[in-house]
Amino acid sequence: MLRFANPSPDATPLFILEPDQLEAWTGSQPDSFGTWMRAAGFEGKPGQTCLVPDTQGEVACALVGVGHAQAQARSRFQLATAAAKLPQGTYAIASAHSHDELREHALGWLLSRYSFERYKASPPHKAQLVCPEGVDAASLEQIVAGEALTRDLINTPASDMGPEALEAAARDLATQHGASCRVTVGDELLAQNFPMVHAVGRASAQKPRLIDLTWGDEGPALTLIGKGVCFDTGGLNIKPAGSMGLMKKDMGGSAAVLGLAHMIMAAGLKLRLRVLIPAVENAIDGSAFRPQDILTSRKGLTVEINNTDAEGRLVLADALALADETPPDLMICMATLTGAARVAVGPDLAPFYTDDDTLAQAIAKGASTARDPVWRMPFHNPYEAMIEPGIADLDNAPKGGFAGSITAALFLRRFVEQTPRFVHFDIYGWQPVAAPARPKGGVGQATRALFDALPEILEL
User: Fold this and answer.
1) What is the pTM of this model?
2) Distance separating alpha carbons of residues 348 and 75, to the nearest angstrom
């Protein structure tokens, strides 16, 4: 687990400075500090570091630059940029900051310590940070552990993260927190009326399954539903090689809800949690479902298959229908669902859909506090006609190429009728280029925002 260093009187003071704060800082320090800083060329630019010696040549303090306000607005977690540049030692933030700023610096530092080491060990992190006074270290460590779980699951290739391994990860999490986990596998999906989960996953060497984790016996009910397509070939509408390369991350929704579930259970939130994950591989063999097939969902709605590569909404539909049969107070769906969402908002923003303005405002507030950006998108009702093909109730892949993320969200909403509050996230789950506190690879999106917002949303 990624942790902060224990408080120590020997920790090196760490000053986080903007360019226009340098004069005031040097005026409050021994003259030699300012002389050294200027000789070293430290100007407070983003990511700059400088070790300042005392008269004995020992390190007296460390300086980290974060740039002007404009630079800070363009890149969150500025301290994390410098964390890898500092030499071995323990550091404690000594400059004055608000509580929210200190929390962001501490969170970013800890997130930056993550590395994926299942197949190759990484060099140990040398610099350690003491959690700033007034910031809840245990809470941040729990949040980062949930994020690390999400990243590990996404980063693991499908050879080691198929439906069976995803089930094992959910069971391990349940054991860790004293939760229950029930799994419906293979042909039993048909017997238990999960026909679309079965149809999408039946061509894989590993049997499809529905994972159902429950925890807590008091408080409001929260159901998390995550897309668990462990690898997506596209099915018979097979993807080209360039589009298939990152499809190990197509279970990013399930990884996200498991990471969020860890945060919730580790914090002991007083709620009744349920996590549903349809875990499949969209593979190809003689039993694969076909274009123009018409599937009947758990809810009874029929779906015309116009593209087997639009499979995520099919498996989610059965899980959403199950959850809606015993409606929770809040239902959250997370999925790496559409390329259209990436075209609309890029890889960094997590678009979400809800009809509840109060819920949307709480999520946006949580996103700002947690530095976990999201963006609300519309359930645009006039587009409902686009998902109605004529010979079935629904079309899984409307023609025309317009509003792909919105029509996917509208498709999912058709399976939620009884639940009073529903939100769907169309996430990317991948950091394409390394950024502060976010190495290239799998990444959690919207989970910290939701974790921060849940107490307000559910009045905990």
Assistant:
1) 0.96
2) 11
